[in-house]
Design goal:
Elements (H helix, E strand, L loop, with lengths): L7 H5 L4 H22 L1 H4 L5 E3 L5 E6 L2 E3 L16 E5 L4 E4 L3 E5 L13 E5 L3 E3 L8 H5 L6 H29 L1 H20 L4 H27 L7 H6 L1 H18 L3 H10 L4 H4 L7 H6 L3 H14 L8 H18 L1 H8 L11 H27 L7 H10 L1 H14 L3 H16 L9 H29 L2 H26 L8 H17 L14 H5 L10 H13 L1
Antiparallel strand pairs: 1-8, 2-3, 2-4, 4-5, 5-6, 6-7
GO molecular function: transmembrane transporter activity
InterPro entries: MFS_dom (IPR020846), MFS_sugar_transport-like (IPR005828), MFS_trans_sf (IPR036259)
Keywords: Membrane, Transmembrane, Transmembrane helix
Amino acid sequence: MTTGVERLFDQLGHFKRFQACLYFAAIFQAISCGIHYLASVFLVETPKFLCDSPSNITNVLFRNHSSTSLADIWTHYKPGDGPVVVQTAGGDQWELSPCLKARRLDAINFQYEFFGNKTVESCGGFVYDHSEVEQSIVTDYDLVCEKEWLAKLAQPTFMLGVLIGALVFGDVADRIGRRPILMATSLWQFIFGVTVAFTGNYYLFVLMRFLLAMVSSGYLVVVFVYVTEFTGIKVRTWTSMHVHAAFAVGIMVVALVGYLVRVWWIYQIILTLSTSPFLLYCWKFPETPFYLMAKGRYKEAQELLDTMAYFNSLPPTLKVSELKDECDGELLNDNKQEDGRAMQVKKRLSILDMFGSLKMAGRSATCWAIWFIGSLGYYVFSLGSVNLGGNQYINLFLAGAVEVPSYLIGCIAMDRVGRKKTCAPALLLGGVACMLIIVVPQDIEILAIVLSMTGKFAIAIAFGLIYLYTCELYPTIIRSLAVGSGSMMCRVGSVVAPFCVYLADIWIYLPQLIVGILAFIIGFLTMFLPETLGQPLTSTLEEAEALGSKPNTKNAAVDALEMNQTIKA
């Protein structure tokens, strides 16, 4: 039987009516995080474009296709396949390319091939194909040619905001509570989300998106802690992993709204409003029992316990004093029995202690690599799905849809066959699927899409379980440090991901190939990590280093308490 604050779940239920209502209400807003993270796929979409054409066009020619209107030629035009030739009412002939235009001199016949002299001019403006994208940030601010880098900077800047937001709000939530942060970040998500739609210039757009990224990341980090502290240990693996599923629903919402709405600012407003009902009830959220007990707010904690008992149709017999006495008893036992761990804490352990021996250095490097490839692969597959060919909206929708079963299978596998035996095969499968894209003929797009989605499915499994796996691989004294440093590598992966996606300009499948090679190598290295399924949590560096080599005995109740303290941290 569990002890301390954790015991409240044995008496009030691990996931009964109260926790279920709170859980689904909290992860509903997590959908908005998935929405805003992937919204840029269509916000900064670049349609086909050409240099601005002269007025009074009477004839248009592209290869063997002719028309009297430039709008009719877009379905045949392919960038890099030659210029579009136009003729004006005055007889002038121009060759229009994406970033240059040339006037033909002394042209007699209107034909596609011309070998005479030309005068080349820079573009004074641009004309866009509005059949797919009616209006985007790119078309509004002409972010093409020499300004193309500004469009490509939008998503990395957003991901930088994600990194900073995770650092800031995670720390603030430990200081002032989970509930205030959930409310504040939700409100600011709505405000910044709407403000993005009404920015008057590119730089203000990027700034608002940066701030939106910070609060979205803040909500996502804190909601993991929030739902963890309201659900019992029997269901905690499932509830924490399926927050990712809500994020995946957000990706599917982006695909649906992107298909229906082709004007970027209307698209942005609809995406923001889609989760706004959360603001109507989030103020009713209670603070978590673990936080209230840790801060000595026992009266509020007792009221919360009584409310949970009432909603779960149980008698309100559990008293805060019982939980408090048990916590005090455990702290006293810890002080008496764990002198070795106390001595190590006094050493002011740092990140260098994760690399204190060759064995721990290899373990730490592999864990960081899994965090990195998990994030890199996740966002490369999501952001790059629109470049695979076929229908970009269906591709993005599938990129979100494949995640849902991946978390279900991941939860079952990690509790049945083990953490390592789930993570390593998942990474290897993702790597093989991505590398097979090399041999796919360019005209068989469906096969490339299937392989890419298989890679996303596999990477999502590894990405979903690495948090828990890292907790179990390190001792109590550096567990929070290990998870925190791993999370930092995850954010680095998310910042690098957009730049990796841009490599599709060189070869359409290059981003997936890079992820595949890295995933395969890291999957192979993961096989050298120890298995932690059924193993007690370790307290000292010596115990952690001995994982996988000799038995380690420890009180299971203390394990549960330590794991909960780590997750809260």
